[in-house]
Sequence to fold (138 residues):
Amino acid sequence: MTFIASMARLNPLAWLALRDPWRIVSHQLSAVIATRPDLDDSPEYLIGILRSAALAAELTPMGHTSVRFQPCGSSAVVLLAESHIAAHHWPEHHKMTVDIHICDYRRDNLSSAQRAAKSIEKAVATKTPTWRLRSIAG
Fold:
């Protein structure tokens, strides 16, 4: 079986991108995560988690921004060459939402998005969250 044929079986959208190098494929992974009660609420800590996840997934951080809410909570975004990872933390509810948006541009990045999700899970989750995947091509 050829490489292209095996890619078509594993990830049909990535196969399309390989056949047409100008085709963009976008993978969006989202989850609501139950977090540890002792999780640091600082935006800096949240940025650290997202940057570490990106690096563990062999993605390319380009910048970041964050905000702290009063009386508690924070949001952070790490901008990637491949798109972005965003998180919103509600410490009073022990919950975090995470959105990982990764584009394929001349390579299949779905596995990178999944590795980033696992890294974030390990850092904050009290139980395994349900990740929702949406992949689109155009």
Notes: DSSP finds four helices and six strands in the chain. The first helix runs from residue 3 to 10. Confidence is low (pLDDT under 50) at residues 1-8. Helices lie at 3-10, 12-19, 43-56, 110-124.
